[in-house]
Design a protein that fits this description.
The chain is α/β, with parallel strands linked by helices. Helix 4 packs parallel to helix 5 and helix 5 packs across helix 10. Bound molecules: nicotinamide-adenine-dinucleotide and (2S)-2-hydroxybutanedioic acid (LMR). Its EC number is 1.1.1.37.
Length: 327
C-alpha cells in the first residue's frame, strides 16, 4: 500500500461535505489503490457536527481511510495537503444572486489560499466548489504566490454532467456515448454548454438536435439547473455536486480517455481570447496529473458571443474582488 494522500475538505459538516467524505474514504476520489488521510476544516460552531461525521467515517471501516482529523484552523488543516477541496462557503439561498456572494465569501478564500501557500505539499491540487467558485478560486490563488497558479481550479464538472444528462435524455443514448462536450466560462447562469464540438456516435451533437431545442431549452436548462434545484429542494444541489467534485479530481489525477475531454475551470492563458488570468471553464485533457486546454477548436459567431458574455461576467467579478482588496 502506498503512503496516504492527504485530502483536506473545507465545509466538511455541510451538505456537500456529507455526500463527499464517504466517497473519498471509499477510494472514489483517487482510485482503489490509494489510501487517504482526511483533514476536515470547519468553523468553530460546526466542529461538533464534523466530529459526528468523523465518527460515522470511522464506523464505515473503510480499508483505504488512514485517518481523520478535524480542524478549525486553516493553517493546520492544509499542512502537508495534496488535494484541497474548498467546499465551505455560504450557499446561495432563494432569490439571492451570485454577485451578492462575492463579498460574503471573499473573506474565506484569501486566508485559505495563504494557508495552502504556507503548508501544502509540492504536488498540491486545489478544487474550489464553494460559490462563486471561479472567483473564489482566483482569490485563493492570488493569496498563494508560491504555488503554481495552474493548481487552482474551480468546478464546472457539475454543469458538464448536467449537460451530458440533458443530451443523453434528448437523444436516448447513454451518457457514455457522448464525447467532447464543453462548458465554457463561469459556473453561473452565463455559462455556455457547447454542443458544436460534442460528438455522439462520432457525429457532431448540435447537428442531431433541433436548433430551437439547443438554444431555447438545452442551454438555459443546463445553465439554470442550480437555481431549479434550489427552487425544488429548498437547498442547493449537494449529492450531485459532491459527485462532480469526485469526477473532477479523479479525472485530473487519472487522465481523460483517448478521444475525449472534460470541462474544468482553470486559469486562462489567453486561449480562445479568454482574458488571461481569470479562472474560466475550458475543454481540457488530463494526463499524468496535469491538464492541458484543448487547442485549435473553431468557434463560430454564436459560440463566440456566448463565451464572451460569460468571460465578461468573470472579468467583472475579478474587478469587484479587486475593488474589495481581495486580490
Ligand atoms: P452548507 O451550508 O451545507 O455547508 C457549508 C459548510 O461550510 C458549513 O458547514 C459551514 O460551517 C462551512 N464553512 C463556512 N465557512 C467556512 C470556513 N471559513 N472554513 C471552513 N468551513 C466553512 O453548503 P453546501 O450545500 O455544502 O454548499 C457549499 C458550497 O458549494 C456553497 O457555496 C454552494 O453554493 C456551492 N456549490 C457549488 C457547486 C458547483 O457546481 N461549483 C454546486 C453546488 C453547490
Ligand atoms: C449549483 O449549480 O447547483 C449551485 O452552484 C447552485 C448554487 O448557487 O449554490
Amino acid at each position: 500500500m502506498s503512503t496516504p494522500v492527504t485530502v483536506t475538505v473545507t465545509g466538511a459538516a455541510g451538505q456537500i461535505g456529507y455526500a463527499l467524505l464517504f466517497r473519498i474514504a471509499s477510494g472514489q476520489l483517487l482510485g482503489s489503490d490509494t489510501p487517504v488521510k482526511l483533514n476536515l476544516l470547519e468553523i468553530p460552531q460546526a466542529v461538533k457536527a464534523a466530529e459526528g461525521t468523523a465518527m460515522e467515517l470511522s464506523d464505515g471501516a473503510f480499508p483505504l481511510l488512514a485517518g481523520v482529523e478535524i480542524f478549525d484552523d486553516a493553517t493546520k488543516a492544509f499542512d502537508g495537503v495534496n488535494v484541497a477541496l474548498l467546499v465551505g462557503a455560504r450557499p446561495r439561498t432563494k432569490g439571492m444572486e451570485r454577485g451578492d456572494l462575492l463579498e460574503a465569501n471573499g473573506g474565506i478564500f484569501a486566508p485559505q489560499g495563504k494557508a495552502i501557500n504556507a503548508g501544502a505539499a509540492d504536488d498540491v491540487k486545489v478544487l474550489v466548489v464553494g460559490n462563486p467558485a471561479n472567483t473564489n478560486a482566483l482569490i485563493a490563488q492570488s493569496a498563494a504566490p508560491d504555488v503554481p497558479a495552474e493548481r487552482f481550479t474551480a468546478m464546472t464538472r457539475l454543469d458538464h454532467n448536467r449537460a451530458l444528462a440533458q443530451l443523453s435524455q434528448k437523444l436516448g443514448v447513454p451518457v457514455s456515448e457522448i464525447k467532447k462536450l464543453t462548458i465554457w466560462g463561469n459556473h453561473s447562469a452565463t455559462q455556455y454548454p457547447d454542443l458544436f464540438h460534442a460528438e455522439v456516435g462520432g457525429k457532431i451533437a448540435a447537428e442531431q438536435v433541433e436548433e430551437s431545442w439547443l438554444k431555447d431549452t438545452f442551454i438555459p436548462t443546463v445553465a439554470k439547473r442550480g437555481a431549479a434545484i434550489i427552487e425544488a429542494r429548498g437547498a442547493s444541489s449537494a449529492a450531485s455536486a459532491a459527485s462532480a467534485a469526485i469526477d473532477h479530481v479523479y479525472t485530473w489525477v487519472n487522465g481523460t480517455a483517448e478521444g475525449d475531454w472534460t470541462s474544468m475551470a482553470v486559469p486562462s492563458d489567453g486561449s480562445y481570447g479568454v482574458a488571461e488570468g481569470i479562472i474560466s471553464s475550458f475543454p481540457v485533457t488530463t494526463k499524468g496529473g496535469k491538464y492541458e486546454i484543448v487547442q485549435g477548436l473553431e468557434i463560430d459567431a454564436f459560440s463566440r458571443e456566448k463565451i464572451d458574455a460569460s468571460v465578461a461576467e468573470l472579468v467583472e467579478e475579478r474587478e469587484a474582488v479587486k475593488g474589495l482588496g481581495l486580490i
